[in-house]
Amino acid sequence: MEAVKFENVRFAYKDGGEESDVFSSETAFALSGVNFSVEEGEFVAVLGHNGSGKSTLARLTNGLLTPSEGKITVMGLNACEEENLFEIRKQVGIVFQNPDNQMVASIVEDDIAFGPENIGIPREEIGERIAFALNAVGMSEFRFSTPSRLSGGQKQRIAIAGVLALKPRIMILDESTAMLDPKGRKEVMDVVVKLNREEKITVILITHFPEEAMLANRAIVMSRGSIVMQGTPQEVLFRAEELEKYSLTLPKSVKICRELTKNGLPVEDGLTADAAAENILRAIQKMDTETVENVKTTWAGTRLMEDCERNTVKQDEEQGRIYCENLTHVYNPSSPFATYALNGVDLEIRSGDFFGIIGHTGSGKSTFVQHLNALLKVPCAEKKYKEKKLKKGELPNKKPVLRVNGYDLTDKTTDFKELRSKVGMVFQYPEYQLFAETVFEDVAFGLKNFGNAFSEEETRFAVKEALKTVGLDYDSIARKSPFELSGGQKRRVAIAGVIVTKPEILVLDEPAAGLDPLGKEEIMRLLHNIHKDWCKTVVVVSHDMDEIAENCTRAAVFSEGKILAVDTPRKLFEQSQRLFNVGLDVPLTAKIVERLKEQGVAIECDYTTADFVEKTLCYAKTIGAGTRSTKKGGAKNA
Question: What global pTM score does this model have?
Fold first, then answer.
């Protein structure tokens, strides 16, 4: 039986909407004649660039939207008929990209109970479902917490739990793991796979992660409102030219294999770290004289890290420097919900760093960066703060130290408004920063808010330059409402609104989360250009270990509100087990290096793609040259 069937479905947003092409100044809010079906019990992955129509497809499936033309059938019911919608929504659970769109209660267990209560589940069973759902997403300890006090990633888990508690026959996940740490992402996907295989729940997974798409039985690719490719995940993810045509990119493991092949070491494509390592090992073992002569060791790939290194300045310079000691922050102090988000953090971010911050969901990352421009203030910086009188024999607590760009953030007399003009902040969800009627007014707000006396012409020029910097055309977008834009465009406008004041420190909390692979590359390239041209220090919070390895000069690992380690990405990712223990992962290149090392092939690199490819080619050339006398020289003979 077909669980979902689309027949020549067309849809257009009347007043603009959420779907548009991140790379186009022309907004196209539509599905264009989509024919699509999912069998009951099937697991389908949906891929596509931002604005391709994926989320519209999901909303049409459970009746949140009604098609302009065509027919949609869900579990045998016509989704275009209003009397069927309640039954369809009982059968179709959807987890959105932004968890705040699904939060309805002030206590976690009430939020999860909301769905089952509305479909008439008995009270005793509701309790069991709450326990099952929270345990499935690893959030049992937060059952009685307040959702508004949870981190973005924790909220995402609660949103997923709310759908799991319904035990729907069809589950749609719309980029629902985008804000989770690697461990949380794996736990959620394990639950989804288990529900699909054991409970025969039909799954439609909208994702940008190749490793998640590989779990599916079938993958489809959408572009500009149409389905343009479909097949097994392997078939789809290996088709480089077609993926690039539709603004997508190859999985990183496949890119590495093809770069090695392009430079003379013929390596078969591998979709996982294990497969890529095995194929690289096999290629090295098969090397002969002709192969050795063809191997190139001069790398012509992109090296964004070089730009970081050239921008590094003296370590003792205050401009661009962040320094803290004993930084502590408690949410809901003096209440049953008191939570230590930061507990004695000591950290120095040097001027010139492109600095990464990683950590499990709820580790304190977002709380820390919100201190950097005093969105959250240390207690002694509050206007009403009065130092507590010590009792006889009582020792004073160690006072925190927090200096950012030369400003003392523990001093209530500090000019925090001036500080914020020097320290720009881009949040997890860009739509939270957009508020004005037009993109121009939104971007220009910073100039006006910080009291700079800009003329109308100077303001227009500054806004135009900021939009140009983030890759948006001023003439075509300045007068549009920011709420008409796609997620990727909103991200860029939010960044433009921050960089328009030319801050000396730029802080970004998950800047690339939820973007398609090409969009992520564009955002990171943009940040490197800003860093190279005028921004002293860039701080990026991320759950993507490859993003940290490829872009950062140094990084800090947060865990349980404390700093676990601070070092270069290379040295941090060499401590793989330590990272695994706190719910993190290592880059794909580090996994390949580890697999090769187990087979006697030692590749010493900094875990960037460019350096891994170059060092692997050098290794192959050296090993091959040393074993030319053998028919199939191998690493094992070296």
Answer: 0.85
